[in-house]
Amino acid sequence: MITRTIPSTGESIPVIGMGTYNTFDTNNKSAIDSLTAVLNTFYQAGGRLIDSSPMYGNAERMVGTLTSKAPFANELFYATKVWTRGLQQGIKQMDHSMDLMDRKVIDLMQIHNLTDWKTHLPVLREWKEAGKIRYIGITHYTFSSYDDLEKVMRAEPVDFVQFNYSILEREAEDRLLYVAAELGVATLINRPFGQGRLFTHLKNEPLPHWAADLSIQSWGAFLLKYIIAHSNVTCVIPASSNAQHMADNMKAGEGTLPDERTREKMAAYVRAL
Ligand SMILES: NC(=O)c1ccc[n+]([C@@H]2O[C@H](COP(=O)([O-])OP(=O)(O)OC[C@H]3O[C@@H](n4cnc5c(N)ncnc54)[C@H](OP(=O)(O)O)[C@@H]3O)[C@@H](O)[C@H]2O)c1
After folding, report:
1. pLDDT for 17-34, tens place per residue?
2. What is the pLDDT of residue 180?
3. Residue 131 CA to ligand 1 centre (angstroms)
4. Which atom in ligand 1 lies closest to the alpha carbon of residue 220?
5. What is the CATH number of the domain that holds 119?
6. Its pTM surpasses 0.90
7. Is residue 112 lining ligand 1, measured as CB closer than 6 Å?
8. Which of 102, 119, 179, 193 could disulfide-pair with 198, CB 3.0 to 4.6 Å?
9. Is 145 in the pocket of ligand 1 (CB under 6 A)?
10. Domain count within the chain
């Protein structure tokens, strides 16, 4: 698995992580077996960073339930978010997330969609100082929020910025990916499959014959290799509830990455379908 460096510390993390929106939001006991297979596949392929949020229903609890039974629990990198307004509400929510995820330390605490960020940021700084969290981040999921993400990054030191980026939604290439690199902020990429819509678009289409030159055998790997080939991407966090999909996706983190010309060819191919 290819790794990237978190600029603020020099720590390495595997370039493919895992999202939990929808996929881990279940109480269903029968889902535990299939999600255990998803988590094991992720870990065995070299994945470490798991991203959740109190916004994702039962997902944080499911992360805690599954990882607490895993022998590799302490090797994972746990990211979640604060998604509420008000100082005390934020503290209460973050403490609750740590209980649900069964963690004494959260690796990355992010301010979800910049919600009430001016209130939460000083608390995150205190918690980082106290060792309760290791990194601070901010997130959003729409192109229209990029200016706001940039303003916060320029005004306040943060370790991570999370935003949307995919082969058909490339706006982050215009500016945000470069601003993050310039400021030494690690990037987490959400919605790499446009929340799954890219598969609806591509599922009956053939991969181009030249994908084999990049050791690509699935659309999942094709779409993710496009993203991680951007050198300013630190980690992409696709979500899946299906172990076979997870295995396909994780393969993107191995082998050759496309150069700039090939990336353009990949985007043009998908656009034309
Ligand atoms: N504001 C924020 O902070 C924010 C906003 C959005 C997202 N996020 C984070 O980013 C993560 C990723 O975004 P997302 O979950 O919205 O969307 P996504 O990762 O772009 O797409 C997920 C969907 O793709 C499908 N999928 C995955 N691999 C597949 C494969 N190989 N073949 C076919 N289908 C496949 C999944 O279905 P299956 O289950 O069937 O595989 C799922 O429905 C989230 O889970 C969350 O952690 C954060």
Report:
1. 999 999 999 989 889 999
2. 98
3. 30
4. 31
5. 3.20.20.100
6. yes
7. yes
8. 193
9. no
10. 1
Verify whether ligand 1 is closer than 6 Å to residue 141 (CB atom). yes
Q: Which residues of the chain have pLDDT under 50?
A: none
User: Would you say 41 and 52 are in contact if contact means Cβ atoms under 8 Å apart?
Assistant: no
What range defines the domain where residue 99 resides?
Answer: 3-272
118 Cα to the center of ligand 1, angstroms: 28
With beta carbons less than 8 A apart as the criterion, state whether 85 and 114 touch: no
Cα 181 to Cα 98, 108, 143, 161, distances in angstroms: 30, 18, 18, 10
Give 193 Cα–ligand 1 centroid separation in angstroms: 6
Cβ(199) to ligand 1 under 6 A? Answer: yes
Residue nearest to atom 25 of ligand 1 (CA): 196
